[in-house]
Predict the 3D structure of the following.
Amino acid sequence: MDRYCRNTAFPGIGKEGQERLFARHVAIVGVGALGGTLAMHMVRAGVGTVTICDHDTVDLTNIARQLLYDEDDVGASKVWTAAKKLRRMNSDVEVRAHDAFLDESTAPHILGGVDLVLDGTDRMAPRYVMNAYCVAHGVPYVYAGVLGGHGMLFNVVPADGTACFACIFPRSEAMERVPTCAEAGIVNTVPAIMASMQATEALKLLIGAPYTRDLVVYDAWKQSFDRVRVRPRPSCGVCGR
Ligand SMILES: [Zn+2]
């Protein structure tokens, strides 16, 4: 408990919240810019079991924003490199690693039994998979996306009847073609900002504290936040009735 004393001294978490974190299992899909920072926050916070998955290798162009990696890691598997570093950060945490991309066929194996799913990807296809899995299994899913100087964040909490990812971004060919950071660029500081906000929402959800129900839109270049009230879409193909 000692190593978490700054978190437990905060009344919103306390020792009771920390005990809950020890008992929880989170999955982080993708361990790049968002996912690497998410994984560090979850492991350092003492979440009992942290599952990570990715099927990429570290590239020199990743280093500017992917804070888990350094020059020595270029060319190495992201997920195995991440697992090794995360285990060194906190040996209390069980880190499970899957060298795989998330899709409909791998989701049950990778996400089975987890208490919460964190989106660390930068592509739409795996987000639809995470969202559908989480809605079907009643698991909270914390979405974040970054592009250019912007970030977005939204909590999908099926048990509370929130909107889901597909309510906001209905699946379509145009959605599948939303540019990635490789195509549209990204300010290197933005992913760590959004991942830290995502990780904070995850801590709240894991201990049962109030979380945001708004879509949060961050503009790093203007240094502004907007909040959009979102309601479930009755005709949603994933969560609609
Ligand atoms: Zn929906």
